[in-house]
Amino acid sequence: LTVKAIDDYKARRPDELTFRCSAIITNVNKVEEDWWRGNYGDQIQGWFPSGIVTEINDIDAVVDGSGLGLLLGDIFEGQFDLRNNKIQISSSKPGFFAFSIISSITDTKVVELASEDQNEMLSWVENIKNTIDRLRQS
Hints:
Elements: E1 2-5, E2 24-29, E3 35-40, E4 43-49, E5 53-56, E6 85-89, E7 97-103, E8 109-115, H1 118-137
Antiparallel strand pairs: 1-2, 1-5, 2-3, 3-4, 6-7, 7-8
C-alpha cells in the first residue's frame, strides 16, 4: 500500500516518521486504526498518524505528464544517484553559503545548493556526505 501525505508531520519519538506534505510513503501496514507503519526515505517501517495521509491506488497517480515522479510535490524537478558524486563547498556570496554536488565520473556539477545560514549549509553538507557513505556501503 502506498499513501500520500496531506499535511506535514514531525516525529515525536525515534520510531516515528518525519515527512512533509505531499510525501509518498510506501510499504504501508495498517497496524492500528489511527497509527500506521511505512517507509519514507531511509526511515523503514516508522509509525505515522493515518489521519494525515490518503491512499494511492496506483503509483502512476503521482507521476505527471513529463514522467517525473511528484514525490516531493511541486518542487520535484528530477533525481540523481548520490553514490557517484562528491561535495564541494562553493565560494560564498554575501548572505549566501553554497555547495555543489559534482559527478565523480564526469567531474561536472550536478546541482548547486545555497542557504542564507552557514551552519545550515554545513549541516546539509554533512548529512549528504553521510548519505553518500551509506549508499556506497550498500
